[in-house]
């Protein structure tokens, strides 16, 4: 299942919704068509509130819903089929997929000192480069020294990069923070698990680009078609498996307590090895 399905409503609903959006769609279109300014716009709490209102659901005051979320992603020029909507949700403390409460929005934009689409897009692409594409980190600016105990100067940085530099200090830890956030974001409040379709969509954009073995695991999941849910333990150990396992599975050991689905994957990927080792678990998970 494509990630797009989890983040947007029916695209054709745009036109039906325009009459009730109080000009939000028109404002959104102008933002999307505009060019990025030569210099980032300084942060303004009032501007952050006004931006929230641009995408706010007219029927649910104080909340950006799926349609507003999709319009926001369009204005930020990020694909709903990629990982950046998840990064956006992470940075703005979302508690539901494709939704923002005003308190979450104000907290997140305030921490980042980002109150316009151009700056928010820069935040996301910086984190994409750092955590998803493994590019070298941006070095702290030295052009405008700041006094001890004060926030990073707006003149020196286009937004508050305090979290970015913390992530850059330990990229693996930061990526796992994002990864674990995504499980919490997708998990229904009354459930302990997330469904396999959602997990597979998230794995395809978060893990597969960094760890090619994830593509083989997704092929296995699709071929089997019997795995329905993902526990928090399986979610966590999937990342461990992908980050530690050699592409040819030569370092796989049945002595390690991998979830049975991953044992099944190894038996599927290496049928000869699976036949020789009677300890490989080939049971189907319900």
Structural account:
32% of the residues are buried. The chain is globular, with a radius of gyration of 21 Å. A two-stranded antiparallel sheet has the order 1-2. The protein has 286 residues and is mostly helical. It folds into two domains: 4-171, Recoverin, domain 1, CATH 1.10.238; 187-276, Cullin, PONY binding domain (Recoverin, domain 1, Orthogonal Bundle), CATH 1.10.238.200. It has helices spanning 4-7, 13-18, 24-33, 45-55, 66-75, 84-91, 102-112, 117-132, 162-169, 171-186, 196-206, 213-224, 232-244, 260-269, 271-276; strands at residues 63-64, 100-101, 194-195, 229-230. The model is unreliable at 8-38, 147-154, 272-276 and 278-286 (pLDDT under 50). The protein contains 15 helices and four strands.
Task: Give me the secondary-structure topology.
Layout: H1 4-7, H2 13-18, H3 24-33, H4 45-55, E1 63-64, H5 66-75, H6 84-91, E2 100-101, H7 102-112, H8 117-132, H9 162-169, H10 171-186, E3 194-195, H11 196-206, H12 213-224, E4 229-230, H13 232-244, H14 260-269, H15 271-276
Antiparallel strand pairs: 1-2, 3-4
Function: Neddylation of cullins play an essential role in the regulation of SCF-type complexes activity.
Domain DCUN1: 43-270
Region (Disordered): 24-46
- Order the strands across the largest sheet as they lie in space: 1-2
What would you give as the CATH superfamily of the largest domain?
EF-hand
- Which fold name corresponds to the CATH topology of the largest domain? Recoverin, domain 1
Choose one word for the global shape: globular
CATH class of the largest domain reads Mainly Alpha
